[in-house]
Amino acid sequence: AAQSGLRFYSSAVHIQTVGVIGSGQMGSGIAQVLAQVAKRNVILVDSKKESIEKSLININNLLTKQLNKGNITEAEKSATLSRISFSDDIKSVKDADMVIEAIVENPEIKSKLFQELAAICKPGAILASNTSSISITQISANTKTPENVIGMHFMNPVQVMKLVEVIPALGTSQNTVDVTLQLAKEMGKTTTLSKDMPGFIANRLLMPYINEAVQAFDEGLGTLEHIDTTMLLGCNMPMGPLALADFIGLDTCYSIMNILHTQLGDKYRPAPLLKRYVEAGRLGKKVGHGFYLYK
Ligand code: NAI
Asked: pTM for this one?
């Protein structure tokens, strides 16, 4: 039994260094948990310098909060920070054992990035996408190593939420699945497996609910507060749907609805108001203005 336990544990041991592409809300959280909980070295890459600076400040602030609460020591904080390096050059992940992508939710941009990653990364490196809804099989198609490509869908905020949905694509190898499940476990997460279908499990169920709330608000069914409070107190949701949409990012919600709509049919048509807010740049909490205003 001890031997088989050891064998099970060893499956993700060779993942020492992880590249994370995209240092937005999700990439930042993934990098922090990889460094802090799974104790892996992380290279966090973003094409925008401002995004990298913001991410460093965010991670530092979150660790300081934990320190002030007495949840971690100064040594743990600095050890976590020392495991994360930042870069604006994608080639800096060339020696990583695994790369987790968390860039904008756009199929063409993601596919292009995965082709680039497959060319840059060392043979056998696992390439995971944190996409909320895009087909992993499509993302893996032009990589020449589809057996190494997988969906690893974290929830927001990554530091707090306990779940990772793991999505094997058509050509994903069992080894890639095993290593990914094990790494998620070492990050302190519980995993579920989902078939590679639009929205996977979480967003197939969540997004139509958020979209319906946006449509209902547009029709004047209730005020923002009344819609959110009804779901919060009447249905025991931890957040109202419109506050949740702001938290996720309205651009991300809109992109996911578009994918559900294109691939699963009219039932999933994005609410026109959601589109209008995205066009207006009211993307939610990350920009200070969505359905609600944020200081
Ligand atoms: P975000 O807008 O906060 O961050 C995206 C980051 O990617 C930005 O910093 C941007 O500069 C960078 N970026 C864009 N294109 C790039 C490229 N080609 N190379 C390098 N960096 C690039 O977005 P967020 O919310 O972090 O979402 C990222 C991904 O995670 C999306 O696929 C989204 O669907 C998924 N996701 C989002 C969740 C959420 O609640 N926001 C939850 C789970 C998954």
From this structure: 0.92
